[in-house]
Design a protein that fits this description.
By secondary structure, this protein is mainly β. It contains six helices and 62 strands. A hairpin with a 2-residue loop joins β35 and β36. The protein is globular and about 85 Å long. InterPro entries: Calcineurin-like_PHP, Metallo-depent_PP-like, Metallophos_N, PQQ_b-propeller_rpt, PQQ_rpt_dom, Quinoprotein_ADH-like_sf, WD40/YVTN_repeat-like_dom_sf. This is PQQ-binding-like beta-propeller repeat protein. It comes from Sphingobacterium kitahiroshimense. It holds the Pfam family Metallophos.
């Protein structure tokens, strides 16, 4: 009898007699903004509503009835294009709730043809930082329609902070969240706190011309209650009801799907390509990486956090994304923490032999885009002697036509900046005759046509070579050759994706590897492709390690595609079989006569036999697993850093010969430098430090200024501590040292670490300076290449 009774009550609960066995309500236009469905308010017909299991449309009266499901926790609406939630897109299921009516309001920022929105990710903080204002103000200035946070908010303090400080009300536009692995926390089930603060873990909405689908991370720090099959079953129903003409923008914290874009569970699967999938947005890897899947045309977009440097030393940024009916049209990275950054490159540095010279300036703002820049020059009596517009060279750099001769003149320049929001800013600079002792003279400046990362100038065949990166994946990555005497562009070679690390050269051939793991050999004189190898086959994470050339062999790649290639033919000589995992280090591979040294972040420092590829040893203790930079090899000793410890290792065995922990953060891309008895180390927090290479005792420290951008892993301005990052290794000029820093200055120090001079170039300098005879070649983050005579 008991079994029959329970069966009867179950059937009744499914609708055979229980009046309140549905989630009922209306989707309505909340004209008075009170969150209640009031008499006279318009309803929305054919709006899509779900409880996470069933998906249906409202009727002609904007009404819906969803059968009650004991597993359901929310009722949520897919906000139609042109609308946004008045309060929230969801309501929690409760036995006390009689009605599940959800209000919408019109969103005038949405355009049916074009949508602007902001992507942020992996903020992982409970501290209020300038990035929040940057995102809020930039979104308002660009008339963005929404902010999408793609997960890792993170842990309980971070999640509560974001719910209070980075919400739709305070940011001024809808803020949507996805679940990351660190958002699955201790509780009744992994996503419980996320649900309490942000609502359902999977949902959809329409905005402008596109349909957005948000799905959760499949696993994390604590086990979630949802399953892939559960989410896929809902997703099938959701996508069947979407407008067939709308592109799908898929959101997940990770890119956890095969190249066929078929999402699979244990019993359920769905081919997302059948539903006009055009983009997949994610985070998780703490890097900046975007590409287009060759077979499907799907745009895959990852960004680093806006408030700190990435694991691979990616720049802290957020993305401004533009979507049309055809998918993603443009992705524009925006670097955080800069307000009215305006810097004139001292005109008195330039040679006056040619008479009139151009003026150059670096201009950047995290809250606004720059519309135009002008310079007004007054002489010592206050008379205007020049006024001219600048033309844009990159997202930082501006240049005028040849303007005036500055020889024997003391003048004042006013750099006048007009922003796209109608605001203005002016920077005053005074300059005169370049009579500073030991100062440099600028011979020429060239520009690579895009930003550049850790690619030092490479001088070959009468050319200065560089390369650009394109974190938006807009097809702007290239290797560029400038004339050694003038800085004029001689040739360009387009690459499939960003070149972020050093170019290498031998016997007329330039070798490089892009972030997608494509290796290239290019003729140095002409820029013509000799061969190309697709080493990684598009696998994550992205590749940011500098390769090396030794006796006609190009060594590149990491993990399972660490490879030795014949430089002339591209033939594979060996491939690593001994380790995989972690993330590619942003430092450089070092080769000697018989060994190859490389590493992976979150993994180890590795020593291989150079000729066979066989692993000889690996070290991952005491911070060595955090690989940012390469190593220096002198005789039988290997000098390496890990977190805040310096190591001297035996070259053949990897045994620790000596080590020392210091009050410095060594998470930088620079390789240690040995100069006589000194060991010079770049740091992420205190500039350059010199140690006695035998005792590892500190000899001197030179601290640079605050970084303009944040690249070193987890470095951030939010701690209110100086972040004096130097990603480049110092280079020797006579007995002195010269290097660029993230504060935008070029420095020259004497052997005791005393400053001889510094030049403000106004943009971060991540790459090493090239020294040739009496010339210095410097490349900055903005893609400018400078030729200085010293």
């Amino acid at each position: 009898m008991k079994k029959k009774y329970y069966l009867l009550t179950s059937l009744l609960a499914l609708g055979m007699g229980v009046a309140n066995a549905q989630y009922k309500g209306h989707i309505f236009i909340d004209s008075n903004g009170n969150g209640q469905f009031d008499s006279g308010e318009r309803t929305v017909e054919h709006a899509v509503v779900s409880d996470g299991y069933q998906v249906l449309k409202t009727d002609a009266n904007g009404q819906f009835e969803i059968p009650e499901n004991p597993a359901a926790r929310f009722v949520f609406v897919t906000a139609p294009a042109g609308f946004k939630p008045a309060k929230s897109h969801f309501l929690k299921v409760s036995p006390d709730r009689k009605e599940y009516s959800i209000g919408l309001i019109e969103d005038t920022s949405q355009n049916p043809d074009v949508l602007n929105f902001i992507q942020i990710t992996d903020t992982e903080t409970y501290l209020y930082g300038p990035w929040i204002e940057n995102v809020r103000k930039y979104a308002a200035n660009q008339k963005s329609s929404l902010i999408m946070h793609t997960g890792d908010i993170c842990y309980e303090p971070g999640m509560r902070f974001h719910a209070q400080q980075v919400n739709s009300q305070l940011m001024g536009l809808p803020v949507y969240y996805a679940v990351g692995n660190h958002d699955l926390v201790k509780g009744e089930y992994g996503e419980k706190l996320f649900e309490d603060l942000f609502g359902p873990t999977y949902y959809s909405f329409d905005a402008g011309p596109a349909h957005f689908v948000v799905t959760p991370m499949w696993g994390g720090d604590y086990k979630p209650s949802y399953t892939r099959d559960q989410v896929i079953a809902w997703l099938k129903k959701d996508l069947e009801l979407k407008d067939k003409n709308k592109p799908v923008i898929f959101i997940n914290h990770d890119f956890d799907i095969g190249p066929d874009f078929i999402l699979k569970g244990k019993t359920e699967e769905i081919d997302l390509k059948k539903y006009k999938l055009k983009a997949w947005l994610f985070g998780h890897w703490h890097n900046n990486y975007s590409f287009v899947n060759a077979s499907s045309g799907v745009r895959v977009i990852s960004t680093n956090a806006p408030n700190k440097g990435g694991i691979d030393h990616a720049v802290g940024q957020f993305l401004h994304i533009k979507v049309t009916q055809d998918g993603v049209e443009d992705v524009a990275p925006k670097y955080s923490n800069l307000f009215d950054h305006i810097q004139l490159i001292d005109p008195a540095l330039q040679s006056t032999e040619k008479g009139k010279i151009p003026f150059r300036a670096q201009v950047y703002d995290s809250n606004r885009d720059v519309a135009s820049v002008h310079v007004r020059v007054l002489d010592s009596k206050g008379n205007q002697v020049a006024y001219a517009p600048f033309k844009r060279l990159s997202d930082w750099s501006w240049e005028t036509e040849p303007l005036m001769n500055v020889s024997n003149k003391t003048c004042t320049a006013f750099i006048e900046v007009n922003y796209n929001d109608g605001t203005q800013a002016t920077k005053k600079e005074t300059f005169g005759v370049n009579d500073k002792a030991n100062q440099l003279q600028l011979k020429w400046t060239g520009n690579l046509g895009g930003n550049t990362w850790k690619v030092s100038p490479l001088l070959v065949e009468g050319l200065v070579l560089g390369a650009t990166f394109d974190d938006g994946g807009n097809g702007k990555s290239q290797i560029v050759a400038l004339d050694e005497k003038s800085g004029k562009t001689k040739w360009t070679f387009s690459t499939a994706n960003s070149i972020k690390q050093k170019l290498r050269y031998e016997n007329g051939i330039v070798a490089a590897t892009d972030v997608a793991g494509n290796a290239y050999a290019v003729d140095a004189k002409t820029g013509k492709l000799i061969w190309k190898k697709e080493l990684s086959q598009g696998r994550l994470p992205s590749y940011v390690t500098a390769g090396a050339i030794y006796e006609g062999v190009y060594y590149t790649g990491y993990g399972s595609y660490l490879t030795a290639l014949d430089l002339k033919t591209g033939q594979e000589l060996w491939r690593n079989q001994d380790w995989n995992g972690g993330e590619a280090m942003p430092g450089e591979i070092i080769v000697t006569k018989d060994q190859l040294f490389t590493g992976a972040n979150w993994n180890s420092l590795f020593a291989h036999d150079r000729k066979t590829g066989k692993l000889m040893w690996k070290k991952n203790e005491d911070g060595l697993r955090f690989r940012s930079g390469g190593v220096a090899v002198v005789g039988n000793e290997v000098y390496a850093t890990g977190l805040n410890t310096v190591f001297v290792l035996d070259r053949l065995s990897g045994n620790v010969l000596r080590k020392k922990t210091l009050d410095y953060d060594f998470k930088v891309m620079a390789t240690p430098v040995i100069s006589g008895e000194q060991l010079l180390l770049s740091t992420s927090d205190k500039g350059i430090v010199a140690l006695d290479k035998n005792t590892l005792n500190e000899k001197w420290n030179f601290t640079t200024g605050e970084a303009l951008i944040y690249t070193s892993s987890y470095s951030s301005p939010d701690q209110n501590k100086l972040v004096a990052t130097v990603e480049a290794a110092p280079q020797q000029v006579g007995t002195d040292f010269v290097f660029g820093a993230s504060d935008g200055f070029l420095y020259r120090l004497d052997p005791q670490g005393k400053l001889k001079y510094k030049i403000n170039l106004g943009a971060p300098i991540l790459a090493e300076v090239l020294v040739k005879d009496d010339l210095l070649y410097v490349t900055d983050f903005a893609g400018n290449v400078y030729s200085f005579q010293h």
